[in-house]
Amino acid sequence: MALECELKYLEADLADLADRLRRAGAGTSGRYFEANTVFDRPDRSLKRDGILLRLREKQGRSVLTVKRPPEAPEPSALKVFEEIETGVEDGAAMAEALVALGFAPAFRYEKVREKWRYMDCTICLDRLPFGDFVEIEGDEARVLACAAELGLNAACTTKATYHGLNIEYRVSKGLEPDENFVFEPGERAALLDELEKL
Q: Is the pTM of this model over 0.90?
């Protein structure tokens, strides 16, 4: 089982970072739209145990992911999860199968992601409905070195999930509680139109 080790950087200027990565010779798979549905049992016991069960739709493909805390975690500045991930031929059928097994959609979220490879790290430039973020994946030393090379502020990091950041954002803005974070229809349509032109 693979370990996913990552750190998020807040207050990100995505255009500036993409330009820096391009000038540094980093490779990119381009920008794309993601639609994610997180499933849980009715009692939300997966969330309580720190387990994520997610069905993701991106670039015409579906991916099923399970993340859980490692059994013997070591201290780290990064967020560390065990991750199991597999492609799914039919996302709608998989969603039906999960419901048949007793899971239910807990919340949905969307983002536009631009993925890069640099300094043996994966750098994700993420635009979410409530802000822009950078997520760097790799081992701890490389993630911190990569972030420093890109000029990211070490004081503006978090190990929180996007789900947790959405909840914090809504509280800070005095908004009604809502675990979902999806783009408004007009903004989604504009983003999809922009991505189709790339």
A: yes
